[in-house]
Design goal:
The complex is a heterodimer.
Chain A (H helix, E strand, L loop, with lengths): L8 H17 L18 E5 L3 E7 L8 E6 L2 E8 L8 E5 L4 E8 L10 E5 L2 E7 L15
Antiparallel strand pairs in A: 1-2, 2-8, 3-4, 4-6, 7-8
Chain B lengths: L2 E3 L1 E3 L12 E2 L3 E5 L3 E7 L8 E6 L2 E6 L9 E4 L5 E7 L10 E5 L2 E7 L15
Parallel strand pairs in B: 2-6, 3-9
Antiparallel strand pairs in B: 1-10, 4-5, 5-11, 6-7, 7-9, 10-11
Classes of the chains: A mainly beta, B mainly beta.
Chain lengths: 146, 127
């Protein structure tokens, strides 16, 4: 029984998700393992807290100096190179970790305070915290009776 | 500086099943005359959360991942799940001396070969 404007939202969202899955399967570079593609390595999760946007990237094997993090023009850039050479003199039985030179750009969801951006690296996870610009934070407006 | 991981060797494993829902980490396997190397990517797992076990000719690698909190997601490209992968150890590996070290979300396991299987040059004497 249709009772409101939003009744189709859930169905449309599901179809949307299905479309995205189909896109991944029919990607014209399908067949190349996901981790070997420059544009999609590293995998990144983004969350939004009240005061900041937090980007986390899976960068196993990389340390402090191996990633360049830049904020410019409303976008976050992550650049670097992940090397996974076979040690010299060893025969290779299995290779699932590809070397990749990466450069990913993320348009930011809102304005940030560039001076306050911090980036930390721990156990192969790079965490970049971008505090939201102060004037974009919600402001409560007092209502005065006349 | 990598951290050494204590390899549980045919004793009672610390936890029979260390992780619950888990994904398989990508792995490289290399071999030379002296040892077999297994390198796995386990980003998000601290060294003390990585478990390497040798039992009955099987090498099990499991790692628990740090939680990422519940803030609303803007984008999600990876699942912060734990890791687990099991390998059969080939014959000729000295299981008692398997060692492991972890650094930056990567684990390196060294499986030394028993001396008897290392390639040996056999001198040919003129008869």
């Amino acid at each position: 029984m249709l009772t409101g404007w939003r009744d189709f939202d859930e169905a449309l969202r599901t179809i949307d998700r299905l479309h995205r899955h189909i896109d991944v399967v029919f990607d014209d570079r399908a067949g190349v393992p996901r981790g070997w593609r420059r544009e999609t390595w590293p995998a990144v999760n983004v969350v939004e807290t009240k005061e900041a946007f937090v980007y986390r990237a899976e960068v196993p094997g990389l340390g402090e100096g191996d990633v360049v993090v830049q904020v410019e023009d409303g976008a976050l850039l992550l650049r670097g190179e992940r090397k996974t050479e076979a040690p010299k003199g060893y025969e290779v039985h299995l290779r699932e970790r590809a070397p990749v030179a990466f450069a990913r750009k993320f348009p930011l969801p809102g304005r940030v305070d560039a001076e306050g951006v911090t980036a930390t690296m721990k156990d192969g996870i790079l965490t970049v915290t971008l505090p939201k610009a102060k004037d974009t934070l919600p402001r409560q407006i007092a209502v005065k009776a006349l | 500086m990598s951290d050494t991981i204590a390899v549980q060797n045919n004793g009672v494993a610390r936890n029979k099943q260390y992780v619950q829902r888990a994904i398989t980490p990508p792995v490289d396997v290399f071999e030379n005359a002296d040892e077999v190397l297994v390198v796995a990517d386990v980003p998000g797992a601290a060294s003390d959360q990585i478990d390497v076990r040798v039992e009955n000719g099987t090498l099990t690698l499991e790692a628990r991942r740090a939680e990422e909190g519940a803030a609303p997601a803007v984008a999600r490209e990876y699942d912060a799940a734990d890791y687990a992968r099991t390998f059969r150890i080939p014959a000729g590996v000295d299981a008692a001396n398997i060692s492991a070290e972890a650094k930056n979300g990567t684990v390196l396991v060294r499986l030394p070969k028993i001396a008897a299987v290392k390639p040996r040059k056999i001198p040919v004497r003129a008869g």
